[in-house]
Amino acid sequence: MDLNCIKAYKLDALKSVRKTNEAKYIGEAGSCTDAIVTLAEDSEPCINKVDAGTTNASEDSSTTSVVQTDNKKTDDKRYVSKADLRKNLRRMRNGPGRNNCSGGRVENSKGFLPNSFDRVLLDAPCSALGLRPRLFAGEETLESLRNHATYQRRMFDQAVKLVRPGGVIVYSTCTINPGENEALVRYALDKYKFLSLGSQHPKVGGPGIVGSFELSTKKYTEEWLTKHESQLVQRFDPSSTLDTIGFFIAKFDVGQKDD
Ligand SMILES: C[S@@+](CC[C@H](N)C(=O)[O-])C[C@H]1O[C@@H](n2cnc3c(N)ncnc32)[C@H](O)[C@@H]1O
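Above: query sequence and S-adenosylmethionine SMILES. Below: predicted holo structure tokens.
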């Protein structure tokens, strides 16, 4: 196939599906024989970036508390927690987040109709626990890890709607947390019976994690993969001899949808 006939879009992964049955989105994804959507922000048409976002800015390791002074009232001093400070630093370094994105297409997009795309790459925002070196370790809690898993499922739901039967979804993260990797795959396969794991080429990473996890309080459980499923995904373990960052890739083939 001629590569010129691949149209790629970057979308807001939480609102990429058009809600109403209005006229087709200006993107006209269907006019090409092969359309790819990358669920990430700051979009430019026809550019498909697949690498995980990394950063080279340094983290402020200051241990002193920080005081921000309001310009209007010089006496009005506000103490900012170190967690908030780190969050702000990251925002300055990585650019605006999804609620404040500057990409014209993302802002203007009313989304696409279901089944508009042949392929979706969901290179999802995540806890980034696979990054090396760890520049901001120790910020995640069990609760925040679960929060990542929650929005990733919502993004995945959107991806499933966007891809036509016969298409492909690739889901990836740069974290080693199985709750955002194997458990997402379990969720996907259990919820959408028309999805199946596809084989990947090249295959460089190791297998996914098999089994399940239960907190001793029994308040939280996570289901992971079967042995067969684990062979179809790629888990990159930063402590393995491969010498990579922590990364995870699952490829889903989309079968005939029920609706
Ligand atoms: C792992 S990085 C993906 C990097 C991307 N593949 C690239 O090359 O730029 C995840 C990205 O998702 C972005 N993001 C966060 N929320 C999003 C949303 N609702 N929709 C789309 N992208 C989002 C983050 O800002 C971050 O840049």
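The longest strand covers residues 163-173.
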